[in-house]
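Lab meeting prep.
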Amino acid sequence: MSEKNIWDVLNRNIFFFKDVVKGREAKTSDKLDVYDPESHQILLECREPDIGVLTKIARLCGGRHDKGTAFNLVASIPGSKEQVLRIAGGNATLSFGSPAVKISDHWDSLLGKLKKKSLTLGTKFTFVPEKQGETFILQIKAGEIFCDDKKVARFSKWDSDFFKENKFKYAFSISQEVPANSQIRQVLLAVAFAQHRVIV
């Protein structure tokens, strides 16, 4: 897929997220599908292709056994292995505080790291770019995401028949003020894919 087509997906402002692990299925990894609310088509498949046996066991046990475990979520084009974004984090129990979360682009080049800030009100992260771009602060509170104190995105439920009938987990909307083809847009979507792993 061309870079233009990848950005056509990333530059959208509303995404519906669905957990596709079935109720009676043994959950050994995270599986999410991301839909376009207008066309009702799957835009991205988020999977964990490279997690170890111990992490799979933690996923199966769930609850406190799964909390803070390593993760490696890859968002790809449906029916292919064409990566759009990757977000990965280490095991929190093996580090002092929370380990940095790494975010990589469609070339699997490291964009930068999210580092959780300690001793703050709410959940705050510093994004430190690997090569280019600016450092910025993300704060997550009450389902809303702020970048340097400006609201840029939010998690929510959606009042539409399509959302309700298909039992989507959450909707994620990005402010129209967030520039297209921007690094912050990539970071916001990566956080949306892994919000249940990052916001703990």
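Slide two material, second protein:
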Amino acid sequence: MPYYAAAGVWLLYALLFPLYRPAHFLIVAFASAAVFLVMRAVCGTVTEQVPDKPAQPETTGNAELDKMIREGAAAIEQMKRLNASIQDPKLSAEIDRLEDVCGKIFDRVKEDPSRLPQIRKFMDYYLPTTIKILGAYERMGAQGVSGENISSTMTRVENMMGTIVGAFEKQLDALFGAEAMDISTDITVLENLMQREGLVTDELHESVSGGTATATAAEGDIKLEL
């Protein structure tokens, strides 16, 4: 408004008074400046805040992988929230371990999206069911009573968490099954080649061969009784 008012002074002056000498321009300039200051004092200064554009979610171009990333991040965030309100130190430590293992599972699949089918049941059942169990534990613990139903259910959850952690760790281990098999094969070929070329002694060859583990690719789903 102050700018519009100052501009209006020039228009009004040009319509009513002569505007062809330097003195005329000085007069209207002073008049418009005065009107500008008055209007600015009356109207004040308006500051408009433009909200920042929301951060675009990370995309990989693979719809199924993007879905896993979103759901995985949401699941870990939910576990963190539940863990913050669960008071049992042992259970809290096991939830910390679950968060860590889940993060490594998701990182592994992001590195190798061909592993997505291998964690489908993990994502569709094991992970959401585990969060559901932890949510029930948190709600029951917040009641402040020790009735038979509440106490027995919370005890079962506490006893079950170690099994769940172990199952999640096996799921992570299974994601490295094919890679372990490839490495084992490479080691065997390398040993045999060095043996044929006479680059290792028989004793060393036997020692290395005896210590070579046969990797089995655990491509199936983990089994967890809930």
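Talking points for slide two:
Residues 2-43 form one domain.
The chain is about 70% helix and 0% strand.
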